[in-house]
């Protein structure tokens, strides 16, 4: 690896500052959405915000945009596996009948 290869990998500080600003804005949006009564849409909105934050961290800090295809495939499969687990948990939760408390 030559010196010019290392120079290409160095990112400007402004990229990290914009990422910080975006993450803080999403954090503020998440905090505000928890105070607003949206019903079941509140959970969906917060999951969407958390996915955006995760993707932002993966692209900027984990350098997924410039990674090898195998690394990108592994990251995508991790998201797919998480989606499968969440779907299975929701199926289990929604298929149960409510049992009243014994007291």
N-to-C series of helices and strands: HHHH
First-last Cα distance: 70 Å
Rg of Cα set: 20 Å
Shape: flat
Mean pLDDT: 85
Low-confidence stretches: none
Describe the sheet with the most strands: none
Structural class assignment: mainly alpha
Specify the number of helices.
4
Helix content: over 70%
Strand content: under 5%
Give me the count of strands: 0
Structure description:
It is a single chain. With 103 residues, the protein is mainly α. It contains 4 helices and no strands. The longest helix has 27 residues, at 69-95. The model has no long low-confidence stretch (mean pLDDT 85).
SSE topology sketch:
Elements lengths: L2 H7 L3 H23 L5 H20 L8 H27 L8
Keywords:
single chain; 103 residues; mainly alpha; 4 helices
Quick recap of the structure?
The protein has 103 residues and is mainly alpha-helical. It contains four helices and no strands.
